[in-house]
Write a structure and sequence with these properties.
Length: 298
């Protein structure tokens, strides 16, 4: 295999068509440069230069190699520069898995800030439930996850809380309790509930059950949905009430009334967390920089 050092030396000689000037550019003596070119010609099997006492010219093989050498060395230099930018967190590709985040403006501000700061970085997004995100992170198919607390053991993942979101009750706008400024959780014991399925997010589902249990009842779940937006749609249609993060109130749904909960549980149980998760088995300055932006702006 031909060494890149020989190719670089060949290119300088081909550009100068003068061994002494080429040696000066390469900061080396002329005899070792002449020996290097002869070694390259031996490896290729054909002469690359036409030499006489006064002039140096390229053979047809030399002209062909010069064009390819420029391409190869240019690609090599760009690959090295790209690798260094990735190592510094300045370039590369990140796959971000996330739950539906339309109701979290801080997340979109963070994305905008990151894109401005790192325009060369390519981001790909996968909308997924918390359970699906855990699987994507553990398999290496995603670099970062923005999720609820999983509610299961995830020893391979690092999970960090970004914010705390109080739980509110979502009611059909015509519901009698919608006339209240706040709703006591125990007053909802006879209501029909709409919830997200436990299989898609065990932590959040179990938290809502524990919250109701603290108020002295188990919720009668009549409908389940994949996304909270669908849960709220079913509430608007009159299929039941729901316990949801307060941030969903920002969606401005006219047929749904959001009311604060009065309860006797801890703030931790009566709030949900938005978390950022990653699999740190592989070092990634770019991933860490992205997480730092979320930590600052969300």
């Amino acid at each position: 295999m031909i060494e890149t050092r020989l190719l670089r030396q060949f290119v300088v000689v081909a550009e100068e068509l003068h061994f002494s000037r080429a040696a000066e550019r390469l900061h080396m003596a002329q005899p070792p440069l002449s020996q290097a070119i002869r070694r390259l010609e031996e490896q290729i099997g054909y002469p690359l230069f036409v030499r006489d006492k006064r002039t140096v010219g390229l053979t047809s093989a030399g002209m062909a190699l010069l064009g390819k050498a420029h391409e190869l060395l240019g690609a090599l230099d760009e690959s090295v520069a790209y690798t260094r930018r990735v190592a510094q967190g300045m370039d590369g590709h990140l796959v971000v898995a996330m739950i539906s985040l339309s109701h979290y403006p801080g997340f979109w501000r963070a994305l905008s800030a990151f894109r401005t700061q790192m325009p060369a970085v390519e981001l790909s997004f996968i909308e997924a439930t918390t359970k699906e995100q855990v699987e994507l992170l553990e398999s290496g198919e995603a670099d970062v996850g923005v999720m609820r607390y999983p509610g299961t053991t995830t020893p391979s993942l690092t999970i960090e809380q970004l914010l705390l979101d109080p739980i509110q009750v979502a009611l059909p706008a015509a519901h009698p309790l919608a006339a209240s400024t706040a709703v006591r959780l125990e007053d909802m014991s006879d209501e029909s509930f709409v919830m997200s399925a436990r299989a898609l997010g065990q932590g959040f589902h179990d938290q809502l059950l524990a919250l109701c249990k603290g108020a002295g009842f188990s919720p009668r779940i009549v409908q389940q949905a994949r996304q909270i937006q669908t849960v709220l749609g079913l509430v608007a249609a009159g299929y039941g009430v729901a316990l949801v993060p307060a941030s969903f109130q920002s969606l401005g749904l006219h047929d749904v009334a959001f009311r604060p909960l009065q309860h006797g549980s801890s703030e931790e149980l009566a709030s949900v967390t938005l978390n950022v998760a990653s699999n740190n088995s592989v070092a990634s300055p770019l991933r860490d920089l992205f997480i730092g932006t979320l930590r600052r702006d969300v």
